[in-house]
Here is the input.
Amino acid sequence: MDRDISLFQGDVFPASIPPRRPTPMLPQPVVSWTFARLAVAGLDWLMAETTPTLPAPISTTTKRRV
Amino acid sequence: MSDIAARRWLFLFLVIVSTAAAVSKLYQVVRVDGIDLLEFLFLALFAILFGWITVSFWMAVFGAFARLTGARLLPLAEGSAPSSSRTAILMPIYNEDVGRVFSGVQAIFDSVAAMGTFDFFILSDSTEPANWIAEEVAWQNLRGSLEPDAPIFYRHRHRNIGRKSGNIQDFCENWGSHYDYMVVLDADSLMSGETLASLVQLMDANPRAALIQAPATLVGRSTLFSRIQQFASSAYGPTYNAGLAWLQGGQGNYWGHNAIIRVRAFQQHGGLPKLPGRPPFGGEIMSHDFVEAAFLQRAGWEVWMAPDLTGSYEEPPPTAYDHLKRDRRWAQGNLQHARIILAQGLKLPSRLHLAMGIMSYLASPLWLLLLVVSALEMFIPKGIAPFSYAGRHPELALSVSQSVPLLQLVTATLVLLYAPKLLALMVLLAQPAAVKAHGGIANILRSVVLESVFATLFAPVVMLVHSWFIFNILIGRATGWGTQTRDDRALPFLLVLREYWPHTLIGILASAALYRFAPASLEWFVPLLLGLILTIPLVQISSSLKLGALLARDNLFLVPSETGTIPVLKRAHQLLAKREAVTRNRDYRQLVLEDPQTRALHLRLLEEVPPSTAEIPPEKLTALIEAARRNGTKSFSRQEWLALLSDSGSIAALTGTPFQPPHSIDAAAIFPLGTPRPGEADFPSPLPRH
Here is the structure.
C-alpha cells in the first residue's frame, strides 16, 4: 500500500543537529540604583574629585621630585 | 557637539517647550478660582499625558524631515558581497501551526539560496505532543524536497525554561559558537534573501555593531482589522521609524525578531537574570528584547535600526480581540521593566526605551484617571463661578469664560494626535512608487480617513482594556505567554459579547451621567463615548474576512503586498496551500506508535537531544506502558503523552520493536565543519559513523 503522501517518503533524511560547542551564557547583573546607593556613589565621587593629591616626593639624593 | 547630540537636544527642547506651553495654558484656566486637589491632580495628569503625545508628535516631525530631506538614517559602513561569515537563522516555535511555520522556513530558505552561508534552526518548545510529532514529520518532508545536505536542523527542547529567550539561549549555549551571527525570527516572520544578505554585510563591515533591527512590515492578513493595521504600518511606519532611527542612532532597540545579532556579543552579554520575587514583577523576564538590547549597549556594543531595509515582514494579529490578548502579555512584560530601568550601567537611551515601553501601557490608566478627575470636576458644583475683578472695584465681579483657552488646548491636543498621520501621509505622497503601491492618491486619502475614524473609536476601548490589564498586574495577577492565534478568522458573536459587554455598559452609563450632570460638556466626549458604546460591533465587524475582502475590492487599505508581488511572501503562501492540500486530519501522537518510519525518526531525534533522565521517574513510565497495553492510549493526558514520547525505551517497549537507528546517517557529511578559524579550540569531532 502506498505511503500517505502527507508523510515523508522514503528513507529518513539524515540531518543531525551540529555537535554541541558549550558556551555558557551568564546572567547579567541587575543592581538597581537606590537612594542609598546613589548617595554612597555620590559621596565616593565627591571624595575622589575633591581630595587633594599630594605632590610627588623629593629624592634626597637628586633633590628633585621623583 | 555631534549631529545626533544636537538632534537629541533639539528634540528634548521642543518636547519640553510644547508641554510647558500647554500646561501653562491649562494652569491659567484652572487657577482663576484657586486650585484645589482635584485640579492639581488634573494638571499633573495632563502634564504627563500631553508630554507623552508631544514625544510622538515631534518624533513624527523629525521622521518626516529626515525622509523628505533624504537624511542618512543608517550611518554605517556599507558591506560588500560576498560574505564568508556563517549565520544561523533561528525560528523558535511554540505549538504553532506546523504548515505555516515550515512554509515560511522553506520560502526563506529558497530566498537565501546562494546568498551566503545560512543554516536554519527550527527550535521547538512545543508542549503539545501532536504538534511535536507533526513538526518532526514536516521537517522530514521539507528535507525530502531539498538537497540532501540542506542545512535545516530541528531541535525540540523538552523543558520550556525561560520561554522564548531561554530557547534562544539554549541555542547560543550549545550551537551558537559555530556561527558569527544569528537572525531571530518569529513563527510568522518572513525575510527575503536580499535583506538577510544585506544585514550580514552590514555586520561584517561594522564590527562594533552587536545588533541591527530590520523593522517588520505587517503583511499577509485579510480580516478588516488586520488590513487596517497593515495599512497603518505601511503608510505611517516608515516616517515613525525614520524619526526613531534618526534620534537613537547606534543606541537603538530590539523588537525580538527580524534582527541580526552578533553571536559572541550576545553570548557574553545577553544572558538574562531571574528577577527576585514572583511574577508579574519578579521571575523570568518576559519581554526580553528591550533588556537584551540594553545589556549589549551597557557592554559597549552598538544597536542599530535599519529603517530603509525592506524585505522584512510579519503578520499582525487577525482581530482586535487577538491584538488585545497579545497586549496583555506585552503590558506585563513592559511593566516588569520597571525593575530594570534603574539598573546600574545602563545607557540613558536604553532607560528611555524601557520608559517608553512602560509608558505605552501606563498611559491608558493615566488617561482614564484624567477623564474621571475631569468628570468629577464637572459634577462637583463650584461655590463660585470664575470671575475677575475690574480694577480696584471688587464689587465689579465679571464672570470669565474659559472656553477660548480650553478650545485652544483641545485643538492643540487634536493636532498633536493627528498631525503625525498627516506628516506620514505627506512623506508617502512624495513617493510616486509608494503611492501606486498603496492604490493611488484618492484611495490612500480615503483609507487614511477611515483608518483615523476606526483608530479614534477604538482608542477608548484600548484605554479601558489596558487599564484593566495594568490594574491586574499591579495587584499581582500574572499571565502566561501562551500561543498566539495566527489564523484569519471572524470572531464568534458570543465571544465578542462576553468579552466586551462591560465596555459597552461603561459607555452607556458614562453618557447617561454626563447627560444628567454636565450636559454642556457631553459633546466634548462624543468620540470617546461612541467608541465605548460601539465596542461590540466595532470588534465584531472588524474581524470580518468578507468585509476585509470587500474593501480590498474597493481599493481601500491597499498595501504593496496586495498590489504587487513580494516573492518570499508569495512563495510562503504557495507552499502553505500545497501543504494544506495534502494535510490529513490525523493523530500525530499515534503515528509514532503506528508508523515505523515516523518512530525511527522520532527516536533518532530523541537520541540527538535527549531529555534529562531525571525528569520522568522510571516507575511512572512503567505504569504508562502498562496502561497503554491494557486500554490503549486514547485516554492519555497531554502530560502522559509527553512522558511517553520523551522516552525511547518506553516507545520501543510499547511497540514491541527494539530501537534501531535509521540507516545511512552521517552527521559529518551533513554538517561540513569547515576550516577552524584562527585562535579557536579544536573543532568538535563529528558523530561516529553507523
